[in-house]
Write a structure and sequence with these properties.
Rossmann fold; 180 residues; 5-stranded parallel β-sheet
């Protein structure tokens, strides 16, 4: 990996982005930023219902994305590649990332993480049973609402990764992709 890279794991909720980014971090020895972690760092005590309080949710989302971009810009400026985990659900989110990468002559490697709906729903249900995480959807219905408004990723050299495979299989595919 000679050229600077932004390795962006994108996809719907519970697609495995964060899990794979955590596995990738020690393999590549790169900084890793997760939009969910950033939001929790910025707003640690603000458990809000994103469906009921859209205004506050949107403010927190915007602040989280600004922070993700600033961190990415800083790491690239230091001549280091970076791993990102975020939905990148809107084309504007991806366009901003491409602008930051271009500023540093960095290559963006998008990895679209997905799994069949039944796998995602099972993950949602497991997480609800295990956690009180305020950022997680409360039901399968919340997942489908987000899915309905997700803007398809169009990016050069996109890797589409079915995360219903084992994490080790997914990690091997990512490693091959980022080293090609």
């Amino acid at each position: 990996m000679n050229q600077l890279q932004v390795i962006a794991l994108a996809g719907l909720l519970f697609a495995g982005k964060s899990t794979l980014a955590k596995l990738l971090e020690p393999e590549l020895k790169l900084a890793r930023f997760d939009i969910n972690d950033i939001r929790l760092w910025l707003f640690p005590y603000d458990a809000i219902d994103s469906e009921k309080d859209r205004g506050l949710d949107e403010l927190q989302v915007r602040a989280s994305w600004k922070s993700l971009y600033a961190l990415t810009d800083s790491v690239l400026e230091a001549q280091k590649s970076v791993i990102l985990a975020a939905t990148f659900s809107r084309a504007s989110y991806r366009q901003e990332l491409f602008k930051i990468a271009a500023k540093h002559d960095a290559l963006v490697k998008f990895i679209y993480c997905w799994a069949p709906d039944e796998v995602i729903i099972s993950r949602v249900e497991d997480r609800i049973r295990e956690s009180n995480d305020p950022l997680n959807p409360r039901s399968a219905a919340a997942y489908f609402r987000v899915k309905a408004r997700y803007e398809k990723i169009i990016a050069p050299d996109l890797l589409e990764l079915d995360t219903s495979q084992s994490p080790q299989t997914c990690l091997a595919k990512i490693m091959e992709y980022v080293h090609c």
